[in-house]
Amino acid sequence: MKRKSLPVNEPVIDKGLLEQAKRAIQTDQLQRLAKCSVCSAPCAPNSTEGLCWVCRRLKISAWRDSDQQTVQE
Known about the structure:
The chain contains 2 helices and no strands. It has helices spanning 15-30, 53-72. The longest helix is centred in the C-terminal third of the chain and has 20 residues, at 53-72. It starts with 14 loop residues before the first helix and ends with a helix. By secondary structure, it is mainly α. It is 49% helix and 0% strand.
């Protein structure tokens, strides 16, 4: 007894659309390479200083404290 041959399945998703989705995922992964110059944590995407949010807040606090000390003297 012979088995029935299976019909050739047509792809549900267009190959071009699938390739575009794969490329979009790859570009998202490449943008995550920026690391903080102090602690090597991931940087915020809008960071121009190369600092993570924690180090940036610490820097701002240190500036505020040093400004207050110079005023008191």
